[in-house]
Amino acid sequence: MGPVDYVQVALTAPEVAPLLTGLRQEYDARYGHGAGESVLDVDAGEFESPTGAFVVLVDDGTTVAGGGIRRIDETVVEIKRMWTNPDYRRQGYAIRMLRELAGLARQLGYQTVRLETGHAQPEALALYRRLGFVEIGSYGPYENATAFELDLDAVTAKPRH
């Protein structure tokens, strides 16, 4: 595989379309027909500057991975729309994306990152736990979601390996 570059884009950018399609298909497969419609539950404007951002990793025109951050309040940001192209999984792209999004959150002045995932995504649950995210009570519209939080100050205090 060739080099992969981060690109900060609007949620409506062409590079994001494969990500949203992939998420819809994945949610439908894991949670049942219609579950993929949840990718439309947040207005695209919430992922834009100055309070949010959306980033994709692109490899020679192919969207490899992506994710966005959106403001919850003045100190807390939420990561949403995390996805990795199935052809690129198990290569560290999700970790790179999480680090990039956490870095953007810090630059925008946030102190805490939150996210939610579902029971049918054991790979995501394991990844977030391994990276130091702490399980918290559900805060969003999904009753059965598992919610996590990461203190960005604690992350920057840890040495990187």
Automatic annotation (TrEMBL):
The keyword Acyltransferase applies. Pfam families: Acetyltransf_1. The keyword ATP-binding does not apply. One of its GO terms (molecular function) is acyltransferase activity, transferring groups other than amino-acyl groups. InterPro entries: Acyl_CoA_acyltransferase (IPR016181), Bact_Acetyltransf (IPR050832), GNAT_dom (IPR000182). It comes from the Bacteria. This is GNAT family N-acetyltransferase. Keywords: Acyltransferase, Transferase. Residues 7-153 form the N-acetyltransferase domain.
